[in-house]
Amino acid sequence: MAVLPFLLLVPVFFPLNEGTSQKPSILLFLADDLGIGDVGCYGNTSIRTPNIDRLAREGVKLTQHISAASLCSPSRSAFLTGRYPIRTGMTGHSNGYEVLLWNAATGGLPTNETTFAKILKDQGYYTGIIGKWHLGVNCNSRDDFCHHPLNHGFDYFYGTPFTLFNDCEVSRPSEVHTKIKDKLWLQAQVFIITVLTLIACKKWKLINIPWKMIVICALFGTLYFMYWYIAYTFIQYWNCLFMRNFEVIEQPMDLEEKPGQMVKEAKEFINRSKDRPFLLFVSFLQIHTPYYTTKEFKGRSQHDLYGDNIEEMDWMVGQILESIDQEGLINNTLTYFASDHGGYLEGMEGSPHLKGSNGIYRGGKGMGGLEGGIRVPGILRWPGVLPANTIIDKPTSLMDIYSTVAKLGGGKPPQDRIIDGKDLMPLLQGMVPHSDHEFMFHYCDEYLHAVRWQHNINATVWKVHYISPKFNPEGAGACYGSKLCGCSGEKAIYHDPPLLYNLANDPSEKNPLPTDSDLYNEVLQTIQKAVAHHNATLQAVPQQLYRFNNMWDPRLQPCCGTFPFCWCNKQNDK
């Protein structure tokens, strides 16, 4: 009789299939800026997401799934490496930038990091990424591709090395460096007036400055302003481009065609990979501004372009899942759906219908450790292996996909570094009662804003806030006129003493515990010890998003022609 329980578990841990390999294929969907309150299976009743909802019915829905950052580049680096951005140098900086802002910048996912794609490729998987990368391209030359997906374990790349932003759609107002551009224009006017004044004074012999010095100053100033003028004038060409592997095939990209082209590429990838295990990472451009939606979906939803964008993305999910079904791969494919971080509360153009919803959770994109910025949808489906229509309300992380798929594919994470992601399979299959995450650390740039503690004995999840961004919870203008809230300085609130919430009965973080209670002090002391231990594991690493690593360098500009004449459309060339 003692053998029977073990025999019953054999199909669970060693799923069989009719194909040639026992290793499962992996299909990863990652939305961009999608709020947890935007999805039907998480409570939204006004936006239709039947295909995402189907995944939840046929699999496991995670209700406390947490991103490692509330912004794109840091979050995505953590997703691919299983490591907090603070460990890889992919955090933003209060005196610099919070995400990569140029394709032609030296910063990006460090070459010494090992992605889950690299691990699975070494185990015989055919690996591909379709869509958004936003983790850098080159280091020292236009074609060294040191940060490129194909140098981080992917066999195939079809997508943009950057991201969507308003400047990719000429009808939208610019959203890149708007304040810096205003300053540059003012500085340029002051510079011109100063040079003309010097010339006039020299001509009238009012000053005794050599002509050579005036010419040199004028030359250097002109070069400085020309650099920025060129960078911002051609930004649509520099950043809004599409690549196939190492080749730029569309510059600038045509947003109208992207949903259909991405679906087509995903289906073709699945078709040519069906006889071997594969990893396909579909990294959606939706629902980042400018919320561009094709004609077929424009006006379909109740939430203007924002809702249209989500419903079109859901259609894309359905089309790709249909391909999995048609190829007979459903029972041997682990499918995952999530968002890189919370929804964007600033929205677009002041419309209440053009912003994300994070449900009952406070805050949103770019708001540090606030729950709305880091709690995201998380769904996993694997028929016959994971239970269907199941909900798990335990702390899990986007970083967990790293350890989960590495183990499923027969590989091992690197042993020479700390991996923060945990293997999800025991929790998903009900083999353990709790998540392996006792503590989770929530950063905003390089600042530790909050910490989460899963107290396994009484099933309580505590969360302490040391710093919070200043934001307006009443809709538009959430960051008081800024595109993103601040992480430190005057744009942040420093809590002394820290705020402590019991997320088990206060998920909206409205009622902090009294600071004079014994329970407050007991919980805070436990968390402080965990923070001290965590800090001891951190090491200084090169910062990828700071200063000159995140500035436009024309030497590194991906270009499909002869620089600076970078424009082409080779979509049909393969």
Describe the protein.
- A hairpin with a 2-residue loop joins strand 5 and strand 6.
- The model is unreliable at 1-21 (pLDDT under 50).
- The longest helix is centred in the N-terminal third of the chain and has 26 residues, at 178-203.
- Helix 6 (178-203) packs antiparallel against helix 7 and helix 9 packs parallel to helix 10.
- This protein is globular.
- The chain has helices at 3-13, 50-57, 72-81, 85-88, 116-122, 178-203, 211-233, 235-239, 258-273, 304-326, 371-374, 400-408, 425-428, 518-536; strands spanning 25-31, 60-66, 126-132, 156-160, 242-244, 247-251, 278-283, 333-339, 375-381, 390-392, 396-397, 439-444, 447-455, 460-469, 492-502, 568-569.
- Helices cover 29% and strands 17% of the residues.
- It is α/β, with parallel strands linked by helices and 574 residues long.
Structural class: alpha/beta
Largest sheet: 12 strands, mixed
Helical content class:
25-40%
Average pLDDT metric? 90
Regions with little confidence, pLDDT below 50 for 5+ residues: 1-21
Form type: globular
Tell me the span between the first and last alpha carbons: 59 Å
- Tell me the number of helical segments per DSSP (H or I, 4 or more residues long): 14
Oligomeric status: single chain
What's the Cα radius of gyration? 25 Å
By DSSP, the count of extended strands is 16
Order of helices and strands: HEHEHHHEEHHHEEHEHEHEEEHHEEEEHE
